[in-house]
DNA sequence: GCTTGCTATTTGCATATGCAATTAGATATC
DNA sequence: GATATCTAATTGCATATGCAAATAGCAAGC
């Protein structure tokens, strides 16, 4: 057995007791004073040491377990977890918000629209059956007058019937959908591609210029709602995320 | 006042009661039966309706509130929240894990190493002061014999003294650091760039070919630990993440 | 050695109880 | 009408209690 004499848990008197306990233990873990594998004192011991009831200690520990900092097993006790494979959290803002955050003027333009059964190339690009009725849109978003991102989207009429009577004159499709549709699952994929000729022309860059491609598909209870390809030109654009181990912010 | 007659909460008898309640309400929210703004019945009402104690109901509601699905205020009651700006969660695996997941053989090679004060071009690329001592590494990771990703990394000697005596012969630097260093903050940036000549040669692609560039910097309590640039060739590579509204999985 | 079963430890869950904090809405007062 | 005050609804927190479930470690039996 390893020596697992843990440094004492110290409360700071600020806020609810269960949260003081939670923070105290969290700090011991993230500061490395309790490295992974350290055994956390059992509830009864903490209860005595801290003068709190077992349920209060329990509440703190349950929450830490849900956050992934500790692992609890009946009879075996509680140990500090190893930091899991991290997730990078990237904020997904709507495009108008994104541009506004850059401090630039936002504008958009619907370049094309078609309704009904999809053309073969579109069906293939989005993995659609030819029989599924969709609305297909190409939208150019501008920031400060310059092309910011090229959006190509299909919206499933079965999932969002209201799209048939919407012309997207005032609100771009992404934002409109947030208001007029529901989704329960989404999938993102981020990759780098070279701009094709048409895309390059619209984005005002050279053919083959590297672009960030974000492909997002959303479903509501396994029924597809919308799929979108967002093409961001070159090194101009980057996704940034900040986070801590154990998935914290 | 809006009509806020909520559909009944129904338990399914599977697992702990508090979790049945949590799931039942979560499902009503994510399915849209309780749209944002709907008022959730007060604890006493749910308690009677479900035959559970107030603390049990409370536990479910507290958890839903922490997950951001509902908003609770004393006296005002509980309402369904609006979905927040989403985040895309991307799994960040270590590179060996990443390759293994692809079902390919993993290998890596240290292409260069230098210790001490950084050369000017390196200092600039990573935003270092000339006086900070670092170890600078270039590593090529292969999957199934082919170049998978080119890694360029600096490790701060002040934060990780042990790096001075490690040759990374058995474990690549990224994985080694997970074992031998602590971090409390990290920042990712993902962008698309064209391969420069040297990079292209090492990755066995054409100059200018689009690549995904992941730049990650980590700190421990505001002191820099390591910074890395990972260059993934072309459309071969994509980051994928799945998630739901309200930040769920 | 191997398996089987017992026992004590530790966490998990649910309840009942009581009080504190917040505040919407009603009421009283100016 | 405006303002101050009160009241009651609602959530937040902590405790005490009891039992259930899992299981590590030990003991007994083969």
Description:
Two copies of one chain form a homodimer. The radius of gyration of chain A is 25 Å and the shape is elongated. In chain A, the strands form two sheets. Chain A has a six-stranded antiparallel beta sheet. A three-stranded antiparallel beta sheet of chain A has the order 1-3-2, with helices on one face. Chain A contains seven helices and eleven strands. Helices cover 26% and strands 35% of the residues of chain A. Chain A folds into two domains: 64 residues, Arc Repressor Mutant, subunit A (Orthogonal Bundle), CATH 1.10.10; 139 residues, 3-Layer(aba) Sandwich (Chorismate lyase), CATH 3.40.1410.10. Chains A and B meet through strand 4, strand 8, strand 9 and strand 11 of A and strand 4, strand 8, strand 9 and strand 11 of B. Strand 11 of chain A pairs antiparallel with strand 8 of chain B, so a sheet runs across the interface. Chain A binds a DNA duplex (30 and 30 nucleotides) through helix 3.
Describe, in short, the structure shown.
The structure is a homodimer of 249-residue chains. Chain A is an alpha+beta fold. Chain A has 7 helices and 11 strands.
Reconstruct the topology from this structure.
The structure is a homodimer of 249-residue chains.
Chain A: H1 17-30, E1 39-40, H2 43-50, H3 54-66, E2 70-73, E3 77-80, E4 86-91, H4 95-101, E5 106-116, H5 120-126, E6 134-143, E7 146-156, H6 173-180, E8 185-194, H7 197-203, E9 210-220, E10 223-233, E11 238-243
Antiparallel strand pairs in A: 1-3, 2-3, 5-6, 6-7, 7-10, 8-9, 9-10
Helix pairs in contact in A: 1-3, 2-3
The structure holds a DNA duplex (30 and 30 nucleotides).
